[in-house]
Design a protein that fits this description.
By secondary structure, the chain is an alpha+beta fold. The chain is built from 3 helices and 2 strands, in the order H-H-E-E-H. The chain has a two-stranded antiparallel ribbon. A hairpin with a 2-residue loop joins strand 1 and strand 2.
Length: about 90
């Protein structure tokens, strides 16, 4: 019953998954308008135009930030589970 929908870390992880899918399944081509808007709002991500297609580019610090977000999410999940066992 963890409130994934209300967790900002979980929301960011879902965006990381979309970025991952873009890289793995679309060779980095950004085809989704929502993903492009997300990329444009984050300083460690950007879109670059190559040969008529826009590609996602991960700038310095993106991976470190993603690891920190995932770690924070896992800690919140652990604490939630521990509180659930106590209560």
């Amino acid at each position: 019953s963890f409130p994934f929908g209300d967790d900002t870390y979980w929301e960011q992880i879902q965006w990381f998954n979309k970025i991952r899918n873009c890289i793995v399944h679309d060779e980095g081509k950004v085809r989704d308008k929502g993903l492009k808007e997300y990329i444009e709002k984050h300083r460690s991500l950007r879109c670059e135009l190559f040969f008529g297609d826009e590609y996602v580019v991960l700038d310095e610090g993106f991976c470190e930030n993603a690891i920190a977000v995932i770690g924070a999410f896992l800690r919140s999940l652990l604490f939630y589970r521990q509180a659930d066992k106590v209560g």
